[in-house]
Each structure stands twice: as structure tokens, then as C-alpha cells.
Amino acid sequence: MSFSVDAGASIGRLQATLPLDALENRILLCHALGISRVGLITQSERVLSADEAQRLAALVQRRLDGEPIAYIVGEREFFGLPFKVSPAVLIPRPDTELIVELALERLPQGGRMLDMGTGSGAIAVACAHSRRDASVTALDVSEDALEIARANAAANGVQVRFLRSDWFGAVGDERFALIASNPPYIASHDEHLSQGDLRFEPAGALTDHADGLAALRAIVDGAPAHLLPGGWLLLEHGYDQAAAVRALLAARGFTEVQSWRDLPGIERVSGGRLS
Known about the structure:
Elements: H1 11-17, H2 22-33, H3 37-42, H4 50-64, H5 69-73, E1 75-78, E2 81-84, H6 97-106, E3 112-116, H7 122-130, E4 135-140, H8 143-155, E5 161-164, E6 176-181, H9 203-206, H10 214-222, E7 227-236, H11 242-251, E8 254-261, E9 267-274
Helix pairs in contact: 1-2, 2-4, 6-7
């Protein structure tokens, strides 16, 4: 039996009785009714029409079926900016804001930056928004992802060069002051791929269909040919991959190799400097 909402129910009552957590209830109510969070308060006594009740019920049912909230409403905030999302791209997560912060600290004035596997464009757009002096290039193998990334750059008023590319293929012999990437790093056998939001996200952006290190190896191996002397390579990776990624960086001759922890205290980003 599908979920239903009674026409004539008030907004205030629905906030308390919808079967999701309080935040998700608010998000779906705002989206279904086209009102702001303030509107939920100021219009708490307002009752839903039959069309509104049907629209809200359909959204709640999609969430009950497991679909991520970000895909249902088509948007997710990242680094204080709104990003359009769809099942063609990963949903930007707060953990990835760490690599943006690290990139902004290490990108020289007027420097050139490369974001590999950009997806929604979250890393590239956030960096370009904070550093108007920088020249940012972003790559992805998926044209569908690039279409969304371009829309996000335009919506946030930034200039980013987007190229369709299988890793370094489209940049020729170009060199950058900094390369950042949040590549597919979940091993193909990881049970998390069949759980929660990951079930709905693009598999090719989550897993390398191997041991979880294949994409990371490819980026580390190719990066020295595309970094300026002293340039940084920053890589987001899995919760248990920091030591392996540091070893890859050291073996390729990077210096100042280290890992940084995200807010929950997990080593989430590793990087090194080309000497």
C-alpha cells in the first residue's frame, strides 16, 4: 500500500506526523508546497489541497522506498552553495568539503587547478567561487555529469573549463599548480554499495569495479606529468585507504606526503607535493 496524505491536513500537523525524521519532513513539505522554511511556520495552520496532498504523498513514498532526499528535490548544498543533482552524479557530501579547504590553502595566486572526476562540479565550482583569481579545469568521463556541472557553474556565477576526459586524456601536456580528485574508491565487493543512498547513485562514480585503489593508482601515476614543480596532488579516499594512498604517493616520488582528517576524525584526504 502506498503512502497517502489527507487533503485538508494542516502544515503544522503534517510536520509532526509524517513518517520521516523532522529534517526530511521539512524538506519535502517545502519542496511539495513551494514554500520556504519560514513559510512552514507562518503558514502552519494552512491546509493542503487535494493536489498538494497527492504531490506530498508521492514524494514521501519515494523517500520511504529509499531514494535519497537530494535526488527527490534535485538539489544539495555544498560549501555553502546550491548544487543541482540527479542520478547521473554523486550527491556532494560534507566530508568532501575537506578537500576544497585543503585545495584553497595550497592553490597559489592566479594558479591553475584541475579537478578530476568532477561529477556535479562540487569541488571545481566551490574552489572557483572562493578563488576568483584561479583558473579551474574540471574533467569527467560522463557527458551527463558534465551537463549538470556546467549548470552548477553557471548558477553559482563562476567560470570553469569542463572537458570530457578519461582521467588525463583531454589535457594533453598541460600542467597545473594543483590537482584534486574524489575518484571512485569503493571496492567492488563492499557491502555498502547495496545499502542506503549508495543504491541509487551512479556505480561508476562510486566503485572502480576492482580493489578500490585502481582509480587512485591511475591518478597518482599520471599526476607528475601534469603538475608544475612544487604542485600539490590531493585525493579523497575511503576510511581505511589512507596508508595505501600515502604509499602510492611516496613511491611516485611525492614529498610532504600526509593525510588529513574529516570532521568525524577519519583520514579522508591524502596528498603530496611534487618536488
